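BUG-501 | component: ligand-complex export | severity: low

The export step for S-adenosylmethionine jobs runs without errors, but we want the raw record kept on the ticket for reference. Input record follows.
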Amino acid sequence: MLPESFVNRMKEMLGEEYEAFSEALKEERHQALRINPLKAEPEDFARTGPFSLTPVPWAKTGFYYDKAQQPGKHPLHEAGVYYIQEPSAMAPAQFLQARPGERVLDLCAAPGGKSTQIAAQMKGGGLLVCNEIHPARAKILSENIERMGIRNAVVTNETPERLAERFSGFFDRILVDAPCSGEGMFRKNEEACGEWSLENVEMCAERQDTILDSAQQMLRSGGLLVYSTCTFAPQENEGSINRFLDRFPDFTLVNVDMSEGFAAGRQDWVPGGREELARTMRLWPHKIRGEGHFLAVLKKEGSVSETERMPVRRDGIKGLSVKEYADYLEFENQYLKIRQEGIFIAFGDQLYLAPQGMPPLKGLKVLRPGLHLGTRKKNRFEPSHALALALKPEEVCFSCDLPSDSREIYGYLNGETFREDVGVYRGEGGKGWHLITADGYSVGWGKLAGGIMKNHYPKGLRKNGAAEAVCSIRQMYEIRHGTDREISACARRRDFLSEYV
Ligand SMILES: C[S@@+](CC[C@H](N)C(=O)[O-])C[C@H]1O[C@@H](n2cnc3c(N)ncnc32)[C@H](O)[C@@H]1O
């Protein structure tokens, strides 16, 4: 049952349109995925891949699928070929328009729907900082960054205030996909309705003001800030933007081309609302095929020269001995056809390749300072799962391809070994590390020895393990909206979570 005060407010806001809105909330949710251009050419995959897909009009790489097809359970999901995402949640990153070479911050990033979309726009070039305040959700974010084969992302677990102390005027673009009262989740979700209250709407609006204060501090002059929520409450939408523009007159709302079905934000829904608010956007479930969203694109006045910028790292080696670096190079020479370039950083026995242009991160909680290359073992180097997912078969010396509908690929994802005569091999006579691929897309490592391909798919991701943990609707709601309760049972249900953001 929808909360009474919510219904009254919506009736007042929508008038005659309320009926259509309330009918839409009774319909099935729309299911969609976003194809990962870092791995597959979206139009080709949409045409020739295993699912029947139709385009999401406002997202270049977004497609609706039929629920019965269950792409979240398909091996190509584990290969990061696509990300399951609520269709209206694809709009904010689309308007952020990040470009290769830029410095971009996704301030409220878990579980990573929009971060992975931004990374695709950046094509591996530049610096993407993905931040999440809640540690368990930051871990899920990090796993999704890994699954999608993203090389240039740093994942942090900080408060917006702490980041703002360090990165004043640093970023070219910032996305604030704010924690909100989540009214866009009400469709077919009794428990989300139960969590709703007027007090919570107020509390969310206050929290959004604080987050936006930090965000604006980190944006360079001339930079772009996109603000979004998945709620309908004006205090958290037009209200948050109106209050923001009162506090920061050096920002203006950008007049963008709206997609068909999007509606303009409303100045009359908030006290003292300025006319400019018509440049904000509302996605309504009765006007588009999606759950609903609000978004605003803001520009900070001015421009900044390169010389004003904070010093950043270029290529180099940090925290590892010459011998340890040599062990890595031995692996690279033996197994890779490409040379990795950037900043090599060791954290304990873990080796990372940080993106060029990464600022000093000392003192911040960092989950991954870039691409995880692997682990330094005694006298050798062992490659990481993240590296496998960032590599293509043509970039390695040895690979073994399994059809995505074969028993063997499901066996591999369950942690099984397989015999040498299974699969199609690239690279002759290779013993040792093989990139295992499904229909040509990397899914992990195997190590060939004595005619057997030993399984190096991470134990925690295996299909018979924690991946089957059941998430209650309540837990999903908490993950989406940032309450503090225990969410470990959901930690591996990445696809499941992403359907809600
Ligand atoms: C709407 S969700 C983000 C969804 C994400 N952008 C995506 O597309 O997958 C909002 C996030 O803000 C985080 N959050 C909660 N309180 C916060 C705060 N005070 N400051 C920053 N982030 C916060 C929540 O943990 C939650 O992960």
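Assignee comment: Attached the raw record above. The two ends are 22 Å apart (CA to CA).
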